[in-house]
Write a structure and sequence with these properties.
Chains A, B: One of its GO terms (biological process) is L-histidine biosynthetic process. The structure is a homodimer. With about 290 residues, chain A is of the alpha/beta class. Chain A contains ten helices and eleven strands. Chain A folds into two domains: about 30-115, Leucine Dehydrogenase, chain A, domain 1 (Rossmann fold), CATH 3.40.50.10860; about 140-265, NAD(P)-binding Rossmann-like Domain (Rossmann fold), CATH 3.40.50.720. The first copy, chain A, is globular. The interface between A and B is large, with 36 and 37 residues.
């Protein structure tokens, strides 16, 4: 059996259409979506990335402001900037490009972002609301992985789900979001004794480790739904470079029923989820 | 093999001694621990319970104030009371007796409690901080269950842990706290297809469902560590009433290496964890 490929690009495009319609409705109601991004001491690459993000927003009718701060900005100054944005009724969403310089405490600054304006879902309170089954804004990558699982139509209630990788941004929120769907979830990680024993019994496997080829067809149950969050740059024997996921695509597609490609799977949907969260924030504020 | 019994009362007493010493040190430094509890429209039983809690605090050198509000108090009024307590430098801890009357939004009010003064660890941000491996104040019952697991000396890194029950207050935070210890954690619940398959492979089982006799010796691997959070009142054939856990004690103790009794297991430790959290809040504020 050859797996059906989960088309992240198509899913993202569909989401963007929906986002554009909702953004237009908000604008018509006099409440335009306005995302403000914070960039501290970014290099040229980071600035370029942020500018492109701005283009992506504007294309869907989302206003975008990039606030650039010098690398010397203090914790207090940046905190006050965030508090000012929290109060600014013209700003509906706030995001902070990472990494921040070492002298800044990322977690404390994320905690300062208003829970509703927190379009990346990184404020600990937003993670807590996911635990409370009261999700306001969930982290974008986790949300993307879960949306792609759902897009296959797999029955999640009672399903055996194995999440590989226990990161704060992906693994743990994915686990929590799938528990919310009443799946039985096992969270595996570097210290797991027998990873294969877990993945082999799973109806759904989500992998977010950052290790090329970690999960092969041998790790999978026949018919599993597999979502690959990993993005790894590898060098092939002939010296060319290639982007691959954590799942060995060729062997996995012989066992899985559904499988995301890398690139073209979770990546584009993550971008779309930031846009969707941005509209959601504005709707919640309305 | 007969399990060793995990003595919750002894653990609680030891914790209380530690709490008393830390509370005395804070008092000597001019920063006494002062827990303020909120009770809305409580009946006589609830008041009695709260007063007893106050006695327990004072016995360890923790000041305790019980604020009673009429059942008619509005969301805004109670929110303002919490905000006032947040700002009051003489108040080091805040807790809210539940349930609140139906017209009040419990989750939103818990979110108002200052994260450091939140001695019950119920503010979503505190749950989020647990996910972030940055725990400030964890929920008391979950903390009690995890402390009792740790008290057995079981190696948690890489251990197979099964948590039965996915409640917000116990199951999910227990799972998160044990992931923080690098255990491989599976969270089972009412929709789990084959509970026994999971519990039988577990080195550690934590049960928090509220169903007497749910887990028997048959569910356990030889030598498992078993912590029973359930508290159920049952009626025996002869009409007498008895308090039991979710684990069938007699059969489980033939398989487990360590087992908590009910009563005398997690219950007293939960009370002790509230006291320990109260001292921790005051120390964090210092």
């Amino acid at each position: 059996m050859a797996a059906q490929i989960i088309d992240g690009i198509a899913f993202a495009n569909q989401t963007k259409q929906d986002v554009a319609a909702r953004a237009a409705a908000l604008k018509a109601a006099g409440k335009p979506v306005h995302l403000t991004a914070i960039l501290v001491g970014g290099d040229h690459g980071a600035e370029l990335y942020a500018e492109r993000q701005g283009d992506g927003c504007r294309a869907l009718g989302i206003d975008y402001t990039l606030l650039k701060f010098p690398v010397s900005i203090s914790q207090r100054e940046l905190k006050n900037e965030i508090r000012r944005l929290n109060k600014d009724v013209g700003v509906t969403g706030i995001m902070m490009h990472l990494p921040l310089p070492d002298h800044l405490d990322t977690a404390r600054l994320q905690y300062e972002i208003d829970v509703v304006k927190d379009v990346e879902g990184v404020n600990p309170a937003n993670i807590g609301y996911v635990v409370y089954k009261h999700t306001l804004i969930a982290p974008c990558t986790a949300l993307a992985a879960v949306e792609l699982v759902k897009s296959t139509g797999v029955q999640l209630r009672g399903a055996e789900v194995v999440v590989v990788g226990a990161s704060v941004i992906v693994g743990k929120p994915v686990a929590l979001l799938l528990i919310e769907q009443e799946a039985t979830v096992t969270l595996c990680h570097i210290a797991t004794r027998d990873l294969m024993a877990h993945t082999r019994r799973a109806d759904v496997v989500v992998v977010a480790v950052g290790k090329a080829g970690l999960i092969t067809g041998d790790h999978l149950k026949e018919g599993a739904v597999v979502v690959d969050v990993g993005i790894n740059r590898i060098t092939l024997p002939d010296g060319t470079r290639k982007t691959v996921g954590d799942v060995d695509f060729e062997s996995a597609k012989e066992k899985a029923s559904w499988l995301t490609p890398v690139p073209g799977g979770v990546g584009p949907v993550t971008v779309a989820m930031l846009l969707r969260n941005s509209v959601r924030s504005a709707e919640l504020l309305k």
